[in-house]
Structure to design on (117 residues):
């Protein structure tokens, strides 16, 4: 049941979510129920879908949830780009987070391909 906790991609995704929570804590308070909530939700969704997929009955289902997780990673990067463009996030922090997101995306792709073999 907890095999997903051994996956590097799950651990990196959890670390990313924690970092994202730290980053958005400095965003304007009037964004709490807008961009901040959306960023938090999709950052948590990455690791959550890896975990949920691993608990599914078939490899096909697992691969589907990994695909959803990858979609959440793309969504997160887009929202962070928006946050940077409106002045909430320094470009250096965006670059750092984008590098982690790209790494996660590549790991998800490899895991999904392994499941589909």
């Amino acid at each position: 049941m907890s095999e997903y906790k051994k996956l590097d991609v799950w651990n990196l995704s959890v670390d990313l979510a924690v970092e994202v929570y730290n980053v958005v804590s400095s965003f304007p308070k009037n964004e709490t129920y807008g961009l901040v909530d959306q960023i938090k939700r999709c950052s948590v969704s990455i690791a959550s879908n890896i975990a949920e997929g691993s608990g599914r009955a078939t490899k096909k289902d697992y691969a589907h949830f990994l695909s959803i997780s990858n979609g959440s990673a793309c969504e997160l990067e887009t929202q962070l780009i928006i946050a940077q463009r409106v002045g909430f996030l320094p470009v250096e922090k965006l670059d750092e987070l984008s590098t982690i997101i790209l790494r996660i995306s590549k790991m998800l792709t490899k895991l999904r391909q392994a499941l589909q073999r």
